[in-house]
Amino acid sequence: MGKTVLTVDDSRTMRDMLKLALTDAGHTVLQAEDGVHGVEVLAQAGDVDVIITDINMPRMDGYGFIDHVRSNPKTRATPILVLTTESEPAKKQKARDAGATGWIVKPFDPVKLVAAIRRVSP
Amino acid sequence: MDPMETIKQGYFQECEELLLAMEEGLTAMEGGDTDPETINAVFRAVHSIKGGGGAFGFSDLVQFAHGFETVMDQIRSGELDPKPEVMQILLRAGDMLSDHVAAARSGTKLDPGHDEDSFAELKALSGKIGDLGEDELKESFEELGFHQVHLVDLDDNATAAPAATPQPIAAAASPVGGKGWLIRFVPRAELYAKANEPSLLFRELATLGEVDVVADLSKLPSLEEIDPEQAYISWTAKLHTDATKDKVEEVFEFASDDCELDIHPLSEQAGVQPVPAAAVPETIVAQTPMTAPQPVVTEVPTPAVAPATPEPAPIAKAPEPPVSAVPSAPLVEKDHPSDRKEAHVESTVKQTIRVDLDKIDRLNNLAGELVITQAMLAQRLLEFRAQSPLLANNLAEFEHLLRELQEGVMAIRTQPVKSVFQRMPRLVRELAAQTNKQVRLVIKGEATEVDKTVIERLGDPLTHMIRNAVDHGLETSDDRITAGKDPEGTVTLSAEHRGGRIIIEVADDGRGINRARVREKALEKGLIQPNANLSDEEIDNLIFLPGFSTAKEVSNISGRGVGMDVVRSSVSSLGGRIIMSSVPGSGSRFIMTLPLTLAVLDGMVVAVGEQTFVLPLSHIIESLQPRSEDIKPFGLNRCLLKVRDSYVPLVKIGGLLNVHGAGTDPVKGVVILVESEGSGRLALAVDQILGQRQVVIKSFEGNYRHIEGIGAATILGDGRVALIIDVDGIVTRCRGNLVENGSIERKATGTGP
What we know:
- The structure holds two protein chains of two kinds.
- Chain A is an alpha/beta fold.
- Chain A has one domain (4-120): Response regulator (Rossmann fold).
- In chain A, 45% of the residues lie in helices and 20% in strands.
- Chain A has five helices and five strands, in the order E-H-E-H-E-H-E-H-E-H.
- Chain A has helices at residues 12-24, 35-45, 62-71, 89-98, 110-120, and strands at residues 4-8, 28-32, 50-54, 80-84, 102-105.
- In chain A, strands 2-1-3-4-5 form a five-stranded parallel β-sheet, with helices on both faces.
- Chain A is globular, with a radius of gyration of 13 Å.
- Chain B has five domains: 3-145, Up-down Bundle (Four Helix Bundle (Hemerythrin (Met), subunit A)); 154-297 and 306-314, no CATH class; 357-412; 416-595, Histidine kinase-like ATPase, C-terminal domain (Heat Shock Protein 90, 2-Layer Sandwich); 600-742, SH3 Domains (SH3 type barrels, Roll), CATH 2.30.30.40.
- Helix content of chain B is 37%, strand content 20%.
- In chain B, a hairpin with a 5-residue loop joins strand 16 and strand 17 (639-643).
- The longest helix of chain B is centred in the first third of the chain and has 28 residues, at 3-30.
- Chain B is elongated, with a radius of gyration of 39 Å.
């Protein structure tokens, strides 16, 4: 069943690819270009089912964004998947510590992406 | 188009922007900028290029970018100091990365050794770069073969097995063999804090095979003592499946840090009973996915619904209705309000959209038509002698708005020259290395906007001029020191708007033009007569003549068989002009004047017989009334016109283009002296000059076919079509027949024809 997914990434290519994969899987996609924009979109959209965010972004990076989402009572239980090419444990751990639910390693496989969403959202 | 192909093209467009951002950041860093945001921006650019590249399988690019990114990360974290030597390595890496992007874009592969040096430099600098990029890539692409597991839809499952009633179904699920896994899962509070959800994990397990889940509620305190943020429940799941342990672990991938997880082969279970499930009286057994820890409405502490899951306050969350005992309730997906579909929210980020160029051109064309229609309307009203001042006012306002509309539409096509200017630092770096000179490039006015087409065609002439400036203009450091100058030479590239045109200047502080040498060379090539009386400025501009090259030995930088004449003709094809000035010992300046757009043209409207023609103003030198004694016959049916001290071929447009009713005697008409940048001057005889105006260019080739001598067409205010003369074409055609070697006009002094 379709969910509403917010994707936060400063790379247009990545946003487009996520949108394509997610729309194909029947999800509705909201997009933001960085953490600050992501917070704004969240405030405007109210609720989303899943958030997918990049780590390296201008203005507010992924860690800051996760922090923001987790500290807001409305969104503290929203699953967050971190998108990153950094498969090193340290980066992953830092995202986990900030409160990320899971992660997707770029370049992502659409099947895995959809599976990851299924694993974090009803 | 295939959506992936569209995204790929988008990726390359984005790469262009990212490479610019990278170059800009690196240049700033080279200039001593240590702002973390600058460094971060470079890191992000490289990172994004790599990220997208991986998605399309550009493995060489990804591997190189990975090395580059690693070094940038080390600089970002303060591990590496961006001192000048390091910056040189980074700048070279930046150049290499753009080569990688270009190769990926054209679908070719770079020579295997092309990036070797640069990569080795990065590797030596970082000490951390392995061949990781390769491994990483392999992993992700092999995974593409991931076979799609059967998806158990929640609703289906619920109807198939209405299992919410806490009734052990374990028996029904107990399979025949022992194939599968016994999973013990004990979440910690952090797991919930990160929004992981055990029920989803069990649901996911169910996609691998049949699964029985038993919840262990033994740790659950009484309701009054429950801390909703804590984790009290653990689970044991029997999974009957052929799936490997890896697949099972993958399901718990996100949770594994925040729970205890034991996975044992199911066959072991026969002997060992690792879970005290059966011993616990309050155990609730259910089949997945109905085992979900169910959020309970806290205000109604009905003990009957007891397994109050310590989920972090999901009560406030609208999309998940609290689970009741009715099985279907939690499984209904909420409907998304349609207004949420594309919530692009206002933000402080400057919003842009990408528009197909065709659409803008169509708009541009329409605006042009509108201007023409307005001019026709105005003329018609004049003919009717409509004397209403109100009408005149309205018409003036209409015209004003139209101009604004036209300018607005044209402005859509404009872009900052930055995109082409930003390619120059790399060029200068490479040239400096090749020529062993110290060169500093100063860029000014890169925000100046000009038509996209102009920008696209500006690259080549600029590249050539910069090459020239570094190769011929600047001296070596030693020579500069001897001359009492800064050992580092400066090349300045600047752009500015002036009077509706754009001025682009390339200046160097080198040795200036060696006029004696230029003159000598021009003589040698037969471009001027030995006794020609030329001003300094005229000598300087001789270098624009075809076939002129002053370099004593052809260097491999500027001497590629391309002279300044090619620069001049490409500038001219853009409707621009180029001149140069030079001060011996202190440098040269090349000044290009270009139109802001190629959609309109400043033209001289002339009448020839029954026809009206437009001559592009950029080609016109002067117009004059010829005296009969200045016209000399030359060969068969040809004439030369004496203009001050030189002879110029005289051509009657009427005769050339077979126009009906054209005047035959140039003395009764007007002569317009035109110049083609490449092929010299020509005197064109017309009947009458009607005026000067801006005309909207309508492509001829696009609507009809190419006609020699005619460049394009336009529609005049009276609705008539006027052809725009292709001056370059006519000059080349006429002079080619007349003067050998395409040289400039013979000087009249001393040597008569």
